């Protein structure tokens, strides 16, 4: 049956009582635990705790309080519940020790939120002391703990640092005077006062109640409250008085309206209508016994006003110290707080330690306050607490990975160790080339220079010079001009060199192949023809370069891939010309084709008589050059993944080009320079013979060669250069004709004397016995 009798409570704080659909006639002068839960959540957040456990006495107060705290913590966010432990109504032996062990399972949750009665609070503290966990847990008690001495008596060290909350109150001094003056004689209204007297003074009023051997004394009735025993005003005295006053104010207002001018009840208030009285209760607004406003909201709840205490132990003295208040908002003076073992330093009650800069949080499913810290790896940086993001391609993360910074850009410097060897070879090579050119120009009209074929010799020397000069272009800082010159001259120097050598070897081959079949001279063997052929071959290289410029204009780039190391600290951007490995193959491919073709002709002319022995130095030159470039290929392309790719490939390429030029210069020109400078007697014609005699000597030499290199006794080495001067074309015709003449045609050649023909052709007649 629903009884419509309004009630005003001075101590009930359960959140369920705010449900007006169930407790519509219930009001209270104390705030709901919903406000208390909100205040406790605010305190937890202010102390920077995010991982706590809850402990509740079984029943409406404890369970509803914890439920309200959990709800508010989830609503506000930032606080996670590690465990929610319930204390049974009738705990078994060892139950509280079991509770402590369970709380220790989540040892990081050091803050324990307690909604429990005094007895349960005390037994929890005793169990913590037995488990030797003094100072490990930080307790936060609800108003059932408040500022009471009983729960912490003789447990001061375990309870030290506990934060408690209590509805805002002020001691009523009049009540202190009244209550401390109460004795057994003047008490008339409190039927439990005698029982209180015995418990407060630890005595018995009746002698028959004393047990033998007991240390309990008989009460003398001379004991005084506050003098012979500790006294502290109960925290809810103020609310008891305010509750009574609230009912009185409501009845007074109702009587004034329903029974104006009447003393006592009028018919309209006899009996009192509960519904009408409730309306007057909800409208009251007056100053309470200590001056605080007393009002009710639509659910009958009083506004939330709390004092916040901390139980502090200093110099052996323990006390509850006010450290703040809560009235819709928290006002906490953290500097007044004191913690066991750490003083004013805030203790931690967190699931996971804060992540370091450069680490992102990976939260545990269902526990937003717990996370694993994962470092941002590679080229990632920390965007926010939960995200790592890759830096732009031209940037790398900072040292602490909280941002990005530009990747340093490098290039091959002139003073780099990788540039020393190429530059040394280039400088020495250029000096040697210029020395040969000067020597040849000075002795331009001597037989040995004429015999070398002056036109193609200077073309070949120009190509060798460009090969050496390319080194400086490869090491210079890449820009539009440098990159354009690299495209032009990197392959051009070798093309010029190998085009000249190919023209020479091809001419030798055609002369002697033609001589086997006919006495007529082959076409295009004059110096002018040779130059035309050479420049035609070179023009193909230039044409390819021009096409390349049109299709893909030259420019420099910064390549961040070459040295994009696993560790971004060592990452570098490489400033280089936009020439890919494939483009380089195409650029050098034509030169390689000329080199291979020249090598083939060198092999074919290996059987040419020694009289025409410039074919052999060319052959040796090409064999050596092939070895150089065969070694170049695996080194150059095998280091494409190396962090030092820029340095290795540039050094390998420039050294290979310089070595190729050095081989040509050393084998083809240095012997001639040596003879010119140190053996000038061999560079002077001692006797001139007719062309017919020269051709006869060449034919005889060729004939000996075809007979298995048969040498007459005392035969000296013969030499004949294939490169003829201007009149040499007709002489070549006679040379070919001489190959078909009988052996007796050379019977009258004197022995042991060098012979120079009109075109600089040189042979040495054999010394010793003649050949029959």
UniProtKB/TrEMBL annotation:
Molecular function per GO: G protein-coupled receptor activity
Pfam family, any one: ANF_receptor
Annotated Gene Ontology cellular component terms: plasma membrane
PROSITE patterns per record: G_PROTEIN_RECEP_F3_2 (PS00980), G_PROTEIN_RECEP_F3_3 (PS00981), G_PROTEIN_RECEP_F3_4 (PS50259)
Domain G-protein coupled receptors family 3 profile: 418-692
UniProt similarity note: Belongs to the G-protein coupled receptor 3 family.
Protein name per UniProt: Metabotropic glutamate receptor 4 isoform X9
Lineage: Eukaryota, Metazoa, Chordata, Craniata, Vertebrata
């Amino acid at each position: 049956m629903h009884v419509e009798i309004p009630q005003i409570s001075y101590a009930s704080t359960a959140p369920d009582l705010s449900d007006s659909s169930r407790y519509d006639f219930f009001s209270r002068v104390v705030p709901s635990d919903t406000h208390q839960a909100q205040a406790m959540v605010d305190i937890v957040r202010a102390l920077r705790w995010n991982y706590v456990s809850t402990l509740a006495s079984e029943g409406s107060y404890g369970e509803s309080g914890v439920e309200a705290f959990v709800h508010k913590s989830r609503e506000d966010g930032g606080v996670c519940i590690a465990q929610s432990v319930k204390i049974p109504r009738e705990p078994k032996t060892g139950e509280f020790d079991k509770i402590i062990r369970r709380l220790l399972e989540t040892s990081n949750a050091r803050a324990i939120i307690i909604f429990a009665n005094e007895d349960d609070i005390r037994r929890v503290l005793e169990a913590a002391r037995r488990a030797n966990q003094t100072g490990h847990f930080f307790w936060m008690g609800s108003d059932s703990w408040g500022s009471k001495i009983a729960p912490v008596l003789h447990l001061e060290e375990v309870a030290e640092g506990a934060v408690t909350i209590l509805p805002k109150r002020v001691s009523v001094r009049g009540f202190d005077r009244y209550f401390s003056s109460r004795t057994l004689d003047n008490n008339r209204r409190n039927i439990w006062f005698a029982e209180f007297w015995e418990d407060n003074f630890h005595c018995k009023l009746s002698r028959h109640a004393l047990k033998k051997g007991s240390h309990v004394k008989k009460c003398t009735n001379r004991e005084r409250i506050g003098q012979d025993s500790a006294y502290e005003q109960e925290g809810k005295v103020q609310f008891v008085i305010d509750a009574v006053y609230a009912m009185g104010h409501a009845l007074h207002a109702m009587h004034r309206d329903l029974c104006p001018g009447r003393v006592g009840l009028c018919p309209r208030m006899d009996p009192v209508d509960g519904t009408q009285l409730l309306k007057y209760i909800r409208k009251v607004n007056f100053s309470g016994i200590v001056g605080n406003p007393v009002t009710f909201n639509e659910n009958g709840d009083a506004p939330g006003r709390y004092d916040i205490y901390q139980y502090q132990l200093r110099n052996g003295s323990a006390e509850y110290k006010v450290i703040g208040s809560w009235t819709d908002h928290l006002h906490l003076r953290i500097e007044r707080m004191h913690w066991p073992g750490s003083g004013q330093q805030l203790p931690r009650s967190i699931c996971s330690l804060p992540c370091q800069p450069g680490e992102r949080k990976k939260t545990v499913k269902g526990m937003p306050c717990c996370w694993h810290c994962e470092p941002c790896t590679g080229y990632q940086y920390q965007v926010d607490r939960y995200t790592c993001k890759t830096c732009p391609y031209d940037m790398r993360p900072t040292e602490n990975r909280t941002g990005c910074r530009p990747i340093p850009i490098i290039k091959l410097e002139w003073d780099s160790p990788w540039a020393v060897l190429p530059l040394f070879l280039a400088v020495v090579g250029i000096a040697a080339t210029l020395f040969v050119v000067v020597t040849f120009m000075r002795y331009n009209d001597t037989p040995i220079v004429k015999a070398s074929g002056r036109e193609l010799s200077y073309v070949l020397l120009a190509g060798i010079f460009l090969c050496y000069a390319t080194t400086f272009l490869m090491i210079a800082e890449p820009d539009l001009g440098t990159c354009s010159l690299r495209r032009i001259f990197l392959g051009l120097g070798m093309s010029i060199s190998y085009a000249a050598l190919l023209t020479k070897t091809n001419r030798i081959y055609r002369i002697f192949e033609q001589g086997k079949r006919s006495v007529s001279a082959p076409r295009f063997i004059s110096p002018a023809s040779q130059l035309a052929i050479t420049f035609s071959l070179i023009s193909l290289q230039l044409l390819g370069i021009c096409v390349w410029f049109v299709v893909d204009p030259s420019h420099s780039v910064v390549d961040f891939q070459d040295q994009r190391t696993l560790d971004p600290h060592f990452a570098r951007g490489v400033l280089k010309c936009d020439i890919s490995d494939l483009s380089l193959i195409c650029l050098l491919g034509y030169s390689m084709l000329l080199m291979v073709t020249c090598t083939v002709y060198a092999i074919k002319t290996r059987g040419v008589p020694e009289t025409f022995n410039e074919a052999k130095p060319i052959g040796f030159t090409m064999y050596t050059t092939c070895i150089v470039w065969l070694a170049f290929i695996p080194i150059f392309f095998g280091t494409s993944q190396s962090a030092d790719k820029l340095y290795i490939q540039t050094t390998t390429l420039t050294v290979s080009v310089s070595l190729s030029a050095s081989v040509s210069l050393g084998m083809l020109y240095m012997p001639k320079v040596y003879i010119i400078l140190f053996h000038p007697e061999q560079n002077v014609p001692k006797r001139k013979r007719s062309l017919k005699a020269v051709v006869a000597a060449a034919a005889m030499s060729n004939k000996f060669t075809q007979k298995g290199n048969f040498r007459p006794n005392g035969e000296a080495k013969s030499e004949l250069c294939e490169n003829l001067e201007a009149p040499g074309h007709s002489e070549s015709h006679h040379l070919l004709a001489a190959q078909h003449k009988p052996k007796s045609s050379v019977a009258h050649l004197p022995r042991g004397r060098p012979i120079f023909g009109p075109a600089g052709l040189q042979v040495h007649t054999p010394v010793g016995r003649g050949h029959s």
